[in-house]
Amino acid sequence: MLNVVVLMGRLTADPELRTTASGLSYCRFTVAVDRVFSKNTEEKKTDFISCVAWRQTAEFIARYFTKGQMVAIEGSIQTGSYVNKDNVKVYTTDVVVNNASFTGSKKESGGSYSGSAYQGGAYSAPTPAPAPVAQKAPINQTPDPSVYSNGNTNDFAEIPIDEDLPF
């Protein structure tokens, strides 16, 4: 089974960070997402999707996002229900946000955080320049096994350069 939601839209209001009675941070907000339509004569329609983020993700969203800003989120759909004050059962559907990213330009966001994201436990800070590319080791040199975090270098056999490749 699979429950994955990816949305890109604009926030309808400033996200507000709240705390549960047990001290957990959370943030509820709504994302306005335009529908894809096929007829040129049809008016553009928008869906307003209720979202909730928890813990560090909620803190990140409440701190860096504002009303009208474009946001990309990844999460899952969660349904629930409760009985309101008129004793009527109300059903809810929310997107529980796992990751949030800036998607607008620097001009739109009003800052230099375009491209930043919070992804399940760690902040991905904006980088002004691409990361340097690792240099390849010379063909005749055996790489240092300590640079590999997983695996075993004994799983590979060295192919002599002067022979034909086996594929």
Order of helices and strands: EEEEHEEHEE
**Number of separate helices:** 2
What gyration radius follows from the Cα positions, in whole Å? Answer: 24 Å
CATH class label? Mainly Beta
Query: What is the CATH H-level superfamily?
Result: Nucleic acid-binding proteins
Helix content range of the residues, please? under 10%
Shape: extended
Report the sheet with the most strands, covering strand number, pairing sense and barrel closure.
5 strands, mixed, barrel
Poorly predicted runs: 109-119, 121-132
Relative strand content? 35-45%
Distance between the termini: 38 Å
The pLDDT mean sits at 77
CATH architecture label name: Beta Barrel
CATH third-level topology = OB fold (Dihydrolipoamide Acetyltransferase, E2P)
The figure for the number of domains is: 1
Count of DSSP E strands? 8
Structural class: mainly beta
Strand order of the largest sheet: 1-3-4-6-5
What does this structure look like?
- This protein is mostly beta strands and 167 residues long.
- The chain has a single domain, classed as Beta Barrel (OB fold (Dihydrolipoamide Acetyltransferase, E2P)), CATH 2.40.50.140.
- It is built from two helices and eight strands, in the order ββββαββαββ.
- It has helices at 55-64, 106-109; strands at residues 5-11, 16-19, 25-34, 46-54, 70-83, 89-102, 117-119, 122-124.
- The protein has a five-stranded mixed barrel.
- A hairpin with a 5-residue loop joins β5 (70-83) and β6 (89-102).
- The radius of gyration is 24 Å and the shape is extended.
- It starts with a strand and ends in a 43-residue tail after the last strand.
